[in-house]
Design goal:
Blueprint: H1 3-16, E1 21-22, H2 28-31, H3 39-43, E2 49-50, E3 56-57, H4 67-71, E4 77-78, H5 83-92, E5 98-102, E6 111-112, E7 118-121, H6 131-139, E8 144-147, H7 161-177, E9 183-186, E10 194-195, E11 198-200, H8 208-216, H9 231-242, E12 259-261, H10 270-274, E13 280-284, E14 288-293, H11 303-307, E15 313-315, H12 321-325, E16 330-339, E17 346-348, H13 357-364
Parallel strand pairs: 5-7, 5-8, 7-11, 8-9
Antiparallel strand pairs: 1-4, 2-3, 6-10, 12-15, 13-14, 14-16, 16-17
């Protein structure tokens, strides 16, 4: 298949894939206009994503490669990545310890290593697969996952190969951190290739058990629902299934973060308001408060650290595997609440003449001067 034919096939494929949808409110730029996150725009091969005035996707320019779906840490971009079909197809194979994955534009992925049980062709580019797809395959009994990238150089989307390989490294780091021997590799040329069975994830094999289950349930759809879950939720779910017996070791990778909070916390709630994934939660009663933190939901965006005027929040390395897979909430800080005699707002810490920190500052600076570096919380979006 020459370059022109591949380009035409890729164009036809893009026209059949559902469009990418945007939830602009989840983007970190909706909470911080000066946010530095530009993963989606920097990695998009078609320059179809822009951040001017909020995140936008140009449907005419978008080629639906799926890379942005797992690159976006907050899930602001959503679409069909085909992972649910891939997982279902893999579990329908009688033997699936070693599988190869190929894109639908591969001209002939059948010849290869005779040790592979089958070749699965996806609904789109391999760039659509995040680390969660590979860990989910491992959680379903696949020991060796090999990617067919041998024709990527001839594809119009060849620029995406480094991103595919970066995800492979991330998946292997996570598997190693979980103490697993399963690996994800790029398939190498075989000296004595053999033709293996090929299955499209859109048309998976039906096991004997699945066939009779379908009959018993009177026409149940043989494919899983097209409703997908987020990259982070799928990753945590796979980690739960792959969890080691002693999950006390820190989780590798820069996608996970732990936090601490000092007694400088004044319970202002700004950190919880700016968190795009609700990893931080401020609970207040009449007299007490608690600042709860969920490591499984934290994407290490740094907004809470940036907007904490008191400097109470600090990074604390990586959470443990147990904290992630257990969805444990960590109480970062708790204490007594006071009510400001002027603005009546609740706050923590020692009152200054019965005033909260904001009112005490206004009393000491009646002309509104601000010390260098002080941020104004009321510039933040309302909860």
């Amino acid at each position: 298949m020459n370059l022109v034919k591949i380009a035409l096939a890729a164009e036809r494929f893009a026209q059949t894939q559902p469009p990418i949808t945007v939830d602009a409110g989840r983007c970190v730029h909706a909470l911080d206009k000066s946010a530095m996150c530009d993963l989606c725009t920097r990695l998009c091969p078609a320059n179809a994503i822009s951040l001017e005035g909020g995140v936008h996707v140009d449907p005419e320019a978008c080629i639906r490669c799926g890379l942005c779906l797992h690159v976006c840490p907050t899930g602001a971009l959503a679409g069909h990545d085909g992972v649910h079909c891939l997982l279902y197809c893999a579990t329908q194979l009688v033997d699936h310890e070693t599988v190869e994955l190929a894109c639908p534009m591969h001209p002939d992925p059948a010849p290869g290593d005779p040790k592979a049980d089958a070749v699965l062709t996806l609904t789109g580019c391999l760039a659509a697969l995040g680390a969660s797809a590979y860990l989910s395959l491992a959680a379903r009994g696949v020991k060796q996952i090999r990617l067919r990238l041998d024709v990527c150089a001839q594809c119009p989307l060849a620029v995406l190969r480094p991103e595919i390989e970066a995800v492979v490294r991330e998946a292997n780091d996570l598997l190693e951190g979980l103490g697993k021997s399963e690996t994800v590799t790029v398939a190498e040329p075989c000296a004595k290739p053999k033709r293996r069975p090929i299955y499209s994830v859109k048309n998976p094999p039906i096991s004997r058990r699945g066939f009779f289950q379908a009959i018993a349930q009177q026409g149940r759809d043989l494919l899983p629902s097209l409703t997908g879950i987020s990259e982070r939720a799928r990753l945590i779910e796979a980690m739960q299934q792959l969890a080691p017996e002693t999950p006390d070791q820190p989780m590798p990778g820069g996608s996970f973060s732990a936090l601490t909070a000092s007694d400088a916390c004044n319970a202002c709630e700004v950190c919880a308001r700016v968190c795009p994934t609700s990893a931080l939660e401020m609970r207040k009663g009449d007299e007490r408060f608690e600042l709860a933190f969920s490591p499984a939901d934290c994407i290490a965006c740094g907004l809470c650290l940036k907007f904490c005027d008191a400097g109470a929040l600090q990074p604390a390395g990586a959470p443990t595997v147990g904290q992630l897979i257990g969805h444990e909430q960590v109480i970062l800080r708790s204490g007594t609440l006071h009510r400001c005699r002027r603005c009546h707002a609740q706050f923590a810490g020692e009152p200054d003449g019965g005033l909260c920190p904001a009112c005490a500052f206004r009393r000491d600076h009646p002309f509104g001067s601000l010390p260098p570096g002080l941020k104004i919380p009321n510039r933040l979006p309302k909860a």
